[in-house]
Amino acid sequence: MAEYICLLNKQDTIVIKPAKKTPILLRMIVLMFAMVCGVYICSVCLKQTSIHSKIKFQDIQVVERLSPDDDHGNLQISSVHYPNPETFSRAECAHNPVRYFAILSMQRSGSGWFETLLNSHVNVSSNGEIFSVLDRRINISSITQTLDKVYNLDWFTSASKNECSAAVGFKWMLNQGVMQHHKEISDYFNRRGVFAIFLFRRNLLRRMVSVLANSYDRHAKLLNGTHKSHVHSTEEAKTLAKYKPIINSTLLISDLKEVEITAAKALEYFNSTRHIVLYYEDLIKNPAKLKDVQAFLGLPLMELMSRQVKIHKGPLSDHVKNWEDVNKTLNGTAYESFLQADY
Ligand SMILES: *[C@@H]1O[C@H](CO)[C@@H](O)[C@H](O)[C@H]1NC(C)=O
Ligand SMILES: *[C@@H]1O[C@H](CO)[C@@H](O)[C@H](O)[C@H]1NC(C)=O
Ligand SMILES: *[C@@H]1O[C@H](CO)[C@@H](O)[C@H](O)[C@H]1NC(C)=O
Ligand SMILES: *[C@@H]1O[C@H](CO)[C@@H](O)[C@H](O)[C@H]1NC(C)=O
Ligand SMILES: *[C@@H]1O[C@H](CO)[C@@H](O)[C@H](O)[C@H]1NC(C)=O
Ligand SMILES: *[C@@H]1O[C@H](CO)[C@@H](O)[C@H](O)[C@H]1NC(C)=O
Ligand SMILES: *[C@@H]1O[C@H](CO)[C@@H](O)[C@H](O)[C@H]1NC(C)=O
Fold first, then answer.
1. Domain tally, the chain
2. Measured on CA atoms in the order 144, 145, 151, 155, is the torsion positive or negative?
3. Which parts of the chain span the membrane according to its record (predicted)?
4. Measured between alpha carbons, how far is 205 from 256 in angstroms, rounded to an integer?
């Protein structure tokens, strides 16, 4: 024990103790023992945390990323492409590589906002919700045809900036054929090297309020007789937020569960593709996460911007008519935290 203290307090020992022959060897042994113990404990900790993070869906943080270089048995598929569009010439950018992506999300989860952010990048061309048109997803061959056209840069929307695009894609809601044809679609993604960007919302109760309010506005048209799903001014946001939906508390828990399961299933279906998982709340709280997205897509780093304004701000209790009811229903359940969270 005395020797142990010596280690910490060298100067004293030199003065006080004319050390005997034992010290050097003993010290070395003690030191080695401590090091081995330390390494062992660290490795056990690491192992446990990594197992833990694999298991829990809720714990997946912003980046559960399979980097473009990861080996998934599809190394032979290149992640960069040199498309040769039929409708125009890529001119001086013909030699710039292009990456393919798809934003896989659900309605009212921030994907509209996220897409405007991406499109503010000079080299990104994200073509909007192209599969909202039923004809394009009526069967897998029309889906494939549409995808081929998008990734060949031959799809034209107001968002497309085709000549010098370094990443081309679109946003795709899970209920627009993604879940139904998941097998063929994930095969396509792997075959053609399409990167999947999952965007989910953590607070599914807030999402539900947004879904209900948006579907009410489809008929009510609160903004001078027009319906808007996204707004660009605080006045418009305030007007839309005036409507407080009533949430059917009988179905609340099962509805929330269903959304959660859909997201988990989608992740499982596409787990062999190159993908990244994002949460709306994390992007709001930490805009630096957008750098991860740009890195994932191999883009030159830029400041991304959106003019969209959030509609339902502040405590959720201000936005639900039968709040007490909802509070009581979720109190003590796994979804209790949804009552408080800010975004
Ligand atoms: C898919 O739908 C298109 C358009 O409705 C149709 O022309 C085509 O025959 C269908 N293909 C298959 C394989 O069912
Ligand atoms: C991005 O776009 C700019 C402007 O069109 C172009 O000069 C540049 O080469 C593009 N970068 C990449 C990586 O494609
Ligand atoms: C609605 O009409 C009012 C009054 O005419 C006007 O001030 C406001 O800007 C309009 N809002 C929209 C969204 O057009
Ligand atoms: C809630 O949904 C259930 C099942 O669809 C229905 O029976 C019930 O009337 C609804 N409650 C309200 C308040 O709308
Ligand atoms: C993907 O999910 C399937 C089904 O759950 C599983 O068998 C497979 O191991 C998973 N693959 C990866 C790469 O996680
Ligand atoms: C919420 O649950 C706690 C116990 O879990 C209970 O004491 C409290 O009264 C409940 N609140 C409401 C509003 O039901
Ligand atoms: C839910 O109800 C309880 C009891 O009335 C209250 O203390 C609590 O603040 C409420 N929670 C929210 C988020 O409003």
1. 2
2. negative
3. 24-46
4. 7
50 lines ligand 3 (CB under 6 A): no
Candidates 74, 265, 269, 271: which one to mutate for ligand 5, based on the most atoms within 8 Å of Cβ?
271
Tell which one of 205, 247, 327, 340 to mutate to probe ligand 7, the residue whose CB is within 8 A of the most ligand atoms. 327
6 plus 113 within the same structural domain:
no
Token pair 């792997």: residue: 190
CATH of residue 106's domain is 3.40.50
- Contacts of 87 by beta carbon, 8 Å cutoff, 6+ apart: 153, 154, 156
* Ligand 1 contacts CB of residue 224 (under 6 A): no
**What residue numbers bound the domain in which 10 lies?**
2-55
Same domain, 107 and 226: yes
**Considering every ligand atom, which ligand is closest to the CA of 222?**
3
Mark whether 49 and 146 lie in a shared domain: no
**What pLDDT was estimated at residue 61?**
36
| Separation of CA 311 and ligand 7 centre (Å) | 23
Is 74 found in the same domain as 49?
Answer: no
pLDDT by 10-residue block (mean), the chain, 343 residues: 40 43 70 68 50 39 42 56 81 85 95 94 94 96 95 81 86 96 96 96 93 89 88 89 91 95 96 95 92 94 90 89 94 92 70
Which of 251, 258, 321, 326 has most ligand 4 atoms within 8 Å of CB, for mutation?
251
Q: Name residues contacting ligand 6 (CB within 6 A).
A: 327-328, 331-332
The answer on 65 and 14 residing in a single domain is no
Residue whose token pair is 């010098």: 164
